[in-house]
Amino acid sequence: MRNQRRIPSSSKSNPSKPRPPANPGRKMNTSNKKNSEPTRDACVAHLRRTGVLIGAVLGLCLACSMAFATEPATAAPEWSMLTSQQQEVLVEFRQTWNSLSPEMRERLRLGADRWNNLYPEQRARAKERMLRWQALPLAERERRTQRWNKFRALPPAERMRVKRAMRAYMRMPPAQRQQLREQFESIPEAERAGVKSMLRSFTPAERRRFQHMLRAAPEAQRSALMRELARLDYASRNRRLSELETQFKVPPPAQ
User: Fold this and answer.
1) What pTM does this model have?
2) Are residues 133 and 169 in the same domain?
3) Per-residue pLDDT tens digits for 158-171
4) What is the pLDDT of residue 219?
5) How far apart are CA 180 and CA 223, in angstroms?
6) In the 8-state DSSP scheme, what is residue 186?
7) What is the domain range of residue 105?
8) What contacts 91, CB < 8 A, 6 or more positions away?
């Protein structure tokens, strides 16, 4: 009898009470996003006043550009065809929008869409990244922009190798990353491109082998060894690595 009173016989007994969602965490995220709309408007206004908003959107444009570059060209929208949310974010471009290249307009539109879909904490991180960028000296910003443009110009297979090398680098302990960075910076500028090309060409197994050998070598010799190996072809490099592993008593890799 007690159980019968607790379980309603029909949903019509309380039609105004909403059913709980299957995933309460999802409801929390949706609710936060809806409740943040006034805060979003205030945030947009503040970022526009400080000049950070458009920089953050341009940063999101760069994030979109790799995918955009591989897709067929599409007709870029005129200003009047943008949604009110897109126009609000891109208002700085209102007067010059139709004179921008179709590619740039499409990237800006994608960047505005990404901005509007971010949660407040994600916007805060985008703002922080943009502030760090603005704090860089002009020469450093130009250097990084040139490096990014060179990366975008690489063939797709080469871009994937660069990404794999960067992921492997970021997985290293901080002390090891700092040591490798110092060793690379000690290499003359004219030879750095060859070392970069060698490091990018490594498979994961080859990279581990190279790192183990380099750690076993005396620190004073590491920069010279990187330059030497970078000048060799693939077969000669493997033979030289075997010689160095024997010389520095590098243990075989764990199976």
Assistant:
1) 0.47
2) no
3) 888 888 888 888 88
4) 86
5) 9
6) T
7) 37-137
8) 48
